[in-house]
Design goal:
The protein is α+β, with helices and mostly antiparallel strands and 434 residues long. The chain has 7 helices and 21 strands. It folds into 2 domains: 152 residues, Galactose-binding domain-like (Jelly Rolls); 247 residues, SGNH hydrolase (Rossmann fold, 3-Layer(aba) Sandwich). It is 17% helix and 27% strand.
Amino acid sequence: MNILKLTSTLLICNVFIACGNNSTGSESGESSMVLSSSLEPESSSSVDFSSSSMEVETSAWHTFTPDNPAIRIVGRGDYTTPLAPTFAWSGSNWSIAFHGTAVKILLTAPGSIFNVFVDGDTIPTSVLDLSNSSEGEHLLAENLTEGEHTITVFKRTEAQYGDATFQGFKVYGYSTLSSFPTITRRIEFIGNSITCGYGDLDSLKENTFDITTEDHYWTYAATTARHLGAESHAICYSGRGLYRNNTGSLNGTLPELFPTISPSTTIAWDFSQWIPEVLVINLGTNDFYLGIPDSSEFVNAGITFIKSIRSYYPTTKILMLDGPMLSDYYPAATVSDFSQFPEEPIKGYPSAYIMRRISGTDTSYTYRSQTICQRYLNAIKNNLLSSGETNVARYSFPAQTGKYGYGADWHPSKAQHAYMAGLLEGWVKTEMGW
């Protein structure tokens, strides 16, 4: 049996999920890791490595519970059960730094899929697919070179496909980090399926949703945060809107979900725990899915929502986005006589027309969804500015054209998300001086 004498060992490392892209690797693909079983029987004991000098058995498994300073947690968590907190939102992640050769995670998350990153990789080292598993212990890596390592497990699927209960890590070795470096930059995202990463790993727009092709890690949101070295939270849910959802329902919109720890609970989130410097809202696509929503209802919903956000975050920069799925060519209009509409204004916008003819003599018609959504969002911003708000802004992603391909159900592809991230990253750098 190997015994090592520890005397205040401290590893200073950069864990990429929290600190941004600190690896020289590219974000162009996915590598794999072969796992085998060649380790000593497990020790069931939980070890506290906080003392300055102690003897540690290095050829054994040691358990680290969520409250251990060796673990870094990112995301909204329900700590009703302190040693088994539950997380729902996309991008929630857990990291540990250790000296050893193998690591397991204690995680119960039926319905969810996770990316696993070893030693600061910027592409997934492996995938932990729990979409059909109710098991609570999972081998992440073994046969590692004896030495110091980091592991991050990142929730790539969205909240509606399951919560994740995290009970810590098991390490074949010992912890080497009492605390992770402090990250000063924080960005929060509020969005729909685009922000979730719906279908971004697919390459055929005709395909419907498959949970294996949703990956929040490659979205414009997570990519922007990573490139800027910022920690991020993502409060996102497919099909949901600002005023109404894509079903027409007014219940369960993002303004209703945002104040909670997760969609599966009514427990309020403590906003003082994590305050972003920038908050990005990308909503509107689902509101326009069934046609043009009432202007006053949509605009008032936006004004009310941002005022509520401001009550939580007094100094945060708030950015309202739109795109890239809306266009003036979708959805199809529900009336057949185009002659009724060219001169009919939308309430409050005399220069904006509700409908357009697709081509000169064509009898097919579409709503000007992109144009009108942008006008509605501009109206929200202008109303807030006129009432004394000074830290709210607008930005529009260009409508996708197919140049970067499409994901499932016409959603942005991984390449489209990368393009969008570049645009948003530039905006944030200019506005925030990052």
